[in-house]
Specification:
mainly alpha, about 45% helix, 3 helices, about 80 residues
Amino acid sequence: DKTDFGCMVGEVEAVLDDVSEDKSKVEAAKENIRKLVDLISISENNQGDGPSSMTAFGKLEYYMINNHRDNYDAYVKAGAMMN
């Protein structure tokens, strides 16, 4: 997908069975997603020779950080967005 502000976007999701009794499934899925993001991410400090530990931001977070940082910081401080 492509944003109207010029960035390409990829999304990663996990579909889980009922996790009401076993929250470890959620944590395992999050860890698998982090590993996948590390595998496909290339940052300035990492040219594919190891994990990047890059934080995966959503489209809104990315846009706010890069175009309206003061508002983003206010939302994070108010608890409306996670940092």
